[in-house]
Design goal:
It is a single chain. The chain is of the alpha/beta class. It is built from 8 helices and 8 strands; from the N terminus they run βαβαααβαβαβββαβα. Strand 5 and strand 6 form a beta hairpin. Helix 1 packs across helix 8, helix 2 packs across helix 3 and helix 2 packs across helix 4. The chain is globular, with a radius of gyration of 18 Å.
């Protein structure tokens, strides 16, 4: 089962991916994490990637696809994978489908109203030390401002403030609209209503994956 999860910041992709990962035994693959890890380990690909990122250039799609192809041949991807953060553009999507080992079965597009997304993100808090994520309404830290995991300081990221969220949503929809049409034309796109809580959204996801 090879999947792409599309959705704006705050729509809940990460939450839904964790449920699918646990049940289907497939990993969620973030290309951003792959690039950072390759640089950290100083692999041959990582050294090439570092050269681009140090100069502020975009990493060429062929390098991203190469590192992605390496990752999906690891043992934990035998049953499939969830791509998160790639593709972001039509050329990337076209390159992806030209590689048989990276061909996907379904693309899930999670939709939520702007008011819902702003409410979710503006209540999100993150540990500045270990990165653990909290939510002031649904999952607050046991002690206000203190991380349950490491005792670090829990605060709000600048890009989770309402005015920043508005900008992120505009940018996301401008970039993603063409991708939605691309996968719709190929019969791979399924839209999931993510306005509700996790227990309301996951049955839709399972229906899509079992169909």
């Amino acid at each position: 089962m090879r999947l792409i999860f599309l959705g704006s910041p705050g729509v809940g992709k990460g939450t839904f991916a964790k449920e699918v990962m646990a049940k289907k035994q497939i990993p969620q693959i973030s290309t951003g994490d792959l690039l950072r890890n390759a640089m950290k380990l100083q692999t041959p690909l990582g050294i090439k990637i570092e050269g681009y990122m140090k100069t502020g250039e975009l990493v060429p799609d062929e390098l991203v696809l190469e590192i992605l192809s390496e990752r999906i041949h690891q043992e934990d991807c035998q049953n499939g994978f969830i791509l998160d953060g790639f593709p972001r553009t039509i050329p990337q999507a076209e390159s992806l489908e030209q590689k048989p080992d990276l061909a996907v079965d379904k693309v899930l597009k999670f939709n939520a109203e702007k008011e819902v997304i702003i409410r979710r993100l503006s209540n999100r808090r993150v540990c500045q030390n270990c990165g653990a994520t909290y939510h002031l309404i649904n999952f607050p830290p046991k002690v206000s401002g203190v991380c349950d995991v490491c005792g670090g300081t829990v605060g709000q990221r600048d890009d989770d403030k309402p005015e920043a969220i508005e900008r992120r949503l505009v940018e996301y929809h401008q970039k993603t609209a063409p991708l939605v049409n691309f996968y719709q034309q190929r019969g791979l796109l399924v839209v999931v209503n993510a306005n509700g809580e996790k227990h309301e959204t996951m049955p839709q996801v399972w229906d899509v994956l079992e169909s």
